[in-house]
Amino acid sequence: xxxxxxxxxxxxxxxxxxxxxxxxxxxxxxxxxxxxxxxxxxxxxxxxxxxxxxxxxxxxxxxxxxxxxxxxxxxxxxxxxxxxxxxxxxxxxxxxxxxxxxxxxxxxxxxxxxxxxxxxxxxxxxxxxxxxxxxxxxxxxxxxxxxxxxxxxxxxxxxxxxxxxxxxxxxxxxxxxxxxxxxxxxxxxxxxxxxxxxxxxxxxxxxxxxxxxxxxxxxxxxxxxxxxxxxxxxxxxxxxxxxxxxxxxxxxxxxxxxxxxxxxxxxxxxxxxxxxxxxxxxxxxxxxxxxxxxxxxxxxxxxxxxxxxxxxxxxxxxxxxxxxxxxxxxxxxxxxxxxxxxxxxxxxxxxxxxxxxxxxxxxxxxxxxxxxxxxxxx
Length: 378
Ligand SMILES: Cc1ncc(COP(=O)(O)O)c(C=O)c1O
Description:
- This protein is of the alpha/beta class and 378 residues long.
- The chain has twelve helices and twelve strands.
- The strands form three sheets. A seven-stranded mixed β-sheet has the order 2-8-7-6-5-3-4, sandwiched between helices. It has a three-stranded antiparallel β-sheet with strand order 9-12-11, with helices on one face. The chain has a two-stranded parallel ribbon with strand order 1-10.
- The radius of gyration is 21 Å and the shape is globular.
- It starts with 14 loop residues before the first strand and ends with a helix.
- The site of pyridoxal-5'-phosphate (PLP) has 13 residues, from helix 3 and helix 4.
């Protein structure tokens, strides 16, 4: 019996095995979003006056989850926005280079390219594993994933950041698949400069929630991409956001918006408290193990992800497709959904289409076995 499933409402008939793109969200969290929206409607003006104090509470709770100082955090709708804040906002010397691995998420790689085109910098890519030899005198910033989107490989970001820092090179980590999936401890990641992640993947949080973390070394120098009420001081109700602390206030999202998803982050952490982070992660791991055993026995497709034991594996499981399915490309994902009700991920990794399966706590062993059965018929 799956102790989590009753807290979710998966669509009837859908085999949802792509939490790596977006997870399902617990019913209690969805209800909290609606509750917050309704409460706001009772008097939007009065509610708006409370927003900054309440957002600070959420940020403090997020800090506890990440063992991070909440004054180093800022909320955004997703990790793409957080990576924009770092890559476009940090001053870099003229003519310098941004270094990326060749398996970065394409949208994030484009932020680096955009920055380079905007300011006359260069972008260089390298193939993993990272070695210090990749850092050249002109390298100013390394942009690297914590968990590689294509294969689920976990990179040693603390070591990479330590090597880079020795040479005065900044590191911005794309942790899209890390928050929730891996235990993060920002007080132990002191060499990192910037780190962004989502809450709507492995943390099971509301859609449109993510965050950025910035080392105190850069609080003065990072230029916010947008300005607004709290850019120069924290007037009126903004004083209740972090007691007017300058960095988090300057990094606030600007203007009026729907704050309900951000308030429901607190309800997301109530889910984590109720079940326990270790139990949640152990369940994801057990499902990955079951999946690997099923695919190994039934399909025998080559596994492209690192082994489950050994600390190099995140929450994603990626396989090489047989040639006739690889030829079908992206269309295979739509066909699986339309004909079989099976939602998978189909990343293109170094020019090749791969199958990515990423169950989360709400999935069952039976669903995985059925999904593998469908794949066998293709
Ligand atoms: C490594 C990586 N970075 C960034 C993203 C972008 O996430 P979002 O669209 O939520 O910003 C993804 C999404 O899958 C990803 O895998």
